[in-house]
Amino acid sequence: MFGLDWESLIWIAIGFGGQGLFMMRFVVQWWSSEKAKQVVVPVAFWYFSIGGGLVLTVYAIHRNDPVFTFGQALGLVIYFRNLHLHYKGKGRAAAS
Fold it and tell me: Where, by residue number, does the polypeptide cross the bilayer (predicted)?
């Protein structure tokens, strides 16, 4: 297929898998907002962001693409921080 060897095809599948995970965050956010009839960012959004971001970062490193690697790696810091803030806020709400 396209003159690619098996290793290349596997890495392309990994890249598409990461992109699929990353896309799912928008589907989950859209679906949650439609159900609530207002803009909602569910916690699953951040988990899909992390999953997709991790896979795409590994893929970008494999491709030796510093721009793609930096962009995905920086996003991971933000996604983990948002999850931290989410759970920290839940702890404060429970303590009140």
Answer: 6-27, 39-61, 67-83
